[in-house]
């Protein structure tokens, strides 16, 4: 089960981290991202190279111990608690079962983090389903002063515009559990397409770099908060 994040546990984690700097383990747990598998007809599985490339970038450019693999997770399974970060994307309908709703809420209330990227057409469906997960919460637009935009790379002007979609400005929304941003959602930005292999969407190297940097910010922020 994903450990409940409390102040005391954060203190213990800091102490253990300090010890590991002096006495590092020969093998440490590697960070992986769980791709959310959902029903409803949306293509939850698209661009399977995205997480692999992002984690490879993070492994190369930060001190994070990452395992660049593509793994999907069924929200009805307790396996979702093995992942500190979940990723959900797609173009169409999303439908969560009652058990998935219960599990996802439990996961998020106990320190888990969900990143959602609208790959175009996802927005009305994911808003409806997340309202089932948190009927007492709304998606709030995340101001560009939030540290997620600058924790590793500077995106103080907001998320990058990787794909045009409806030619609207990119936005980020979130759901907070207590004071913690537990769900981060990008619209009209689509950084995860920029993580995919270069020949998938033919994005320029400059756009892909921005997408990977922004993705790095999301992952780093989620891991230390």
Task: Describe, in short, the structure shown.
With 225 residues, the protein is α/β, with parallel strands linked by helices.
Question: What report would you give on this structure?
Answer:
- By secondary structure, this protein is α/β, with parallel strands linked by helices.
- The chain has a single domain, classed as Rossmann fold (3-Layer(aba) Sandwich).
- 36% of the residues lie in helices and 17% in strands.
- It has 7 helices and 7 strands.
- The chain has helices spanning 7-22, 49-61, 98-109, 123-133, 191-195, 198-201, 205-224; strands at residues 33-37, 71-74, 85-90, 113-118, 140-141, 171-177, 180-187.
- The protein has a 7-stranded mixed β-sheet with strand order 2-1-3-4-7-6-5.
- The protein is globular.
Key terms for this structure?
225 residues, alpha/beta, Rossmann fold, 7 helices, 7 strands, disordered N terminus
Biggest sheet record: 7 strands, mixed
How do the strands of the widest beta sheet line up side by side? 2-1-3-4-7-6-5
Total number of beta strands: 7
What is the CATH topology classification name?
Answer: Rossmann fold
Average pLDDT rating: 89
Rg for CA atoms: 17 Å
In which range does the helix fraction lie?
25-40%
- According to CATH, the homologous superfamily is Domain of unknown function DUF4159
Shape descriptor: globular
Distance between the termini: 18 Å
Total tally of structural domains: 1
- Helix/strand class: alpha/beta
CATH class: Alpha Beta
Report the β-strand fraction as a percent range: 15-25%
CATH architecture title:
3-Layer(aba) Sandwich
Order of helices and strands: HEHEEHEHEEEHHH
* SS element count, helices: 7
Report low-confidence residues grouped into runs of 5 or more: 3-27
